[in-house]
C-alpha cells in the first residue's frame, strides 16, 4: 500500500508539472468531462505566466518529468494523425534538440570512460551538435594515420540517467502489477510483461558497448543493401558511457525543404524507409527500433543513413513467419488465412472460431485496403483492433510489442515524405520475397534439412542421456532407502518460515482479542 501511495504521488507530481509548465492550459474545456473541468481551471491558475510557446511548454514539462516521459513524447512526434500536426511538430524538439548538459562535464566523462586524457584520444572535441533524452552527440576529429584527420561522432551518456530511468520504471512496474491484480483487461494485455520488455530495451540503450555491437551487426546484415548505410564503429574510442562512430554527412529526413532543394525523390525515400525496415525485421530478425526522423539521414548518394542503434529489436523464426503471413494475408485480402495464422501461432485461444475471427479481421482490413496512408485513420484502426482482440481473448505478445511500435513509427516517417503512400503495395515486394525464400520449395528443403540435423544430434546424445538417467535413478534409490532426509540448510529455512507464520498468527489473535475487549468495555 505504501508503494502504491508513492506511485500515486508520482503521478500527482506529473500532473502538477504539466499544469505548472502550462501544458494543461492548452486543453480546451469542452474536451474534458464536466467533473474534471474544475481541475482544469485550477491547472490554469497555477501555470507559469512565462510558459512560452506550445513547443516550449511540452519540452519543459517532459524534460522535468524524466527520460521515460521524453521517450513517450518522441514517439508521439511521429504520429500527427493521432496528436495533430501542430502538437507533433512541437514534440519534434524532444528528438535531438534537448538542452546539452555542458561541455566541461562531457569532456570529463569522456576522459574518465576512455581512461586517458581527452587530448590523446581526439585531436579536437567540439560542442554538442545534438542532445536527446539519454545522451548527447559531439563532433570530433581523430588522426587517421596518414597525416590527416577524419571526423567522428562521439555519443556521451547524460549524467545520472540510469538512476532517473530506474526510478520511473520501478513506478511503472508497480502500477502495472496493481492494474493486473485488479483488472481482467490489464491481465489480458499483460501490462507487466510489456513494461519489462520496454525496460530491458531502454536499459540496453544506456550501455553504449551494446549499441556499438548493434551498429556492427546491423552494418554486417545490410552490407549488400544499396539503399541503406550504417556508420562504422571506432572501437578504440568507445566504452560503456562513450560511443564513437563514423560521422555522417547528410540531410535529416525531417528537413523536407532541404531534401527537395538537394533534388532527392521524396516518394522513393518513403519507399526505402518502409522496405528497409521490413527487410531488417523479416530477413534478418534484427531491426532498428527507434527510426524517428532525427535518426535518419540522406547522404549524397541518396542512401538512407541510420544512426542511434541504442534500441534494437529481435524476432525469432516463428515471429517472422507470423509477421510475413499476416502482412501477406492483408495484402492479398485472404482473411481466412490471416485468421488461421493467429490460431497456429497460439495468439488466439483454440476455443474460438477461426471463421468468426476471420470475419473480425475482414472488418479491420477491408476499410484500409487499397487506400493511401492519407486516408487511413490509425487512431480509429488501433481502436477497432483493440476491441477485436479483447473480444477474442488475445493476450499481448511481449516479443511483438517493440515490432508493433516501430512499424507505427516507420509508417509515420514514410507518410511525412509521401502522404499518398500505400503501405500495403509498398510492403508487398519484401513480404513476397521472404515468403518465396522461406515458405516456398527452397525454404521447405532447408527446414527439412535442419530437422534432420536436430534428429541426428538427438540420436548422438541418447547414450549420454541414458547414462545420466541411470545415475539419477541410483541416487534417488539411495536417498529414499532409509527415508527421505533433508539438508540442514533446508530444515533451517523451514524453521524460519514456520516461526514467521506463527508470529503473525499470534499477532493476529492478539489484535482480535484486543478488539473484542474494547467492544466489551464500550
Automatic annotation (TrEMBL):
<keyword id="KW-0831">Ubiquinone biosynthesis</keyword>
<keyword id="KW-0472">Membrane</keyword>
<dbReference type="GO" id="GO:0004672">
    <property type="term" value="F:protein kinase activity"/>
</dbReference>
<dbReference type="InterPro" id="IPR000719">
    <property type="entry name" value="Prot_kinase_dom"/>
</dbReference>
<feature type="domain" description="Protein kinase">
    <location>
        <begin position="123"/>
        <end position="522"/>
    </location>
</feature>
<dbReference type="GO" id="GO:0005524">
    <property type="term" value="F:ATP binding"/>
</dbReference>
<keyword id="KW-1003">Cell membrane</keyword>
<dbReference type="Pfam" id="PF03109">
    <property type="entry name" value="ABC1"/>
</dbReference>
<comment type="similarity">
    <text>Belongs to the protein kinase superfamily. ADCK protein kinase family.</text>
</comment>
<keyword id="KW-0812">Transmembrane</keyword>
<keyword id="KW-0997">Cell inner membrane</keyword>
<feature type="transmembrane region" description="Helical">
    <location>
        <begin position="503"/>
        <end position="521"/>
    </location>
</feature>
<comment type="pathway">
    <text>Cofactor biosynthesis; ubiquinone biosynthesis [regulation].</text>
</comment>
<keyword id="KW-1133">Transmembrane helix</keyword>
<dbReference type="InterPro" id="IPR050154">
    <property type="entry name" value="UbiB_kinase"/>
</dbReference>
<dbReference type="InterPro" id="IPR004147">
    <property type="entry name" value="ABC1_dom"/>
</dbReference>
<protein>
    <submittedName>
        <fullName>2-octaprenylphenol hydroxylase</fullName>
    </submittedName>
</protein>
<dbReference type="InterPro" id="IPR011009">
    <property type="entry name" value="Kinase-like_dom_sf"/>
</dbReference>
<dbReference type="GO" id="GO:0006744">
    <property type="term" value="P:ubiquinone biosynthetic process"/>
</dbReference>
<dbReference type="InterPro" id="IPR010232">
    <property type="entry name" value="UbiB"/>
</dbReference>
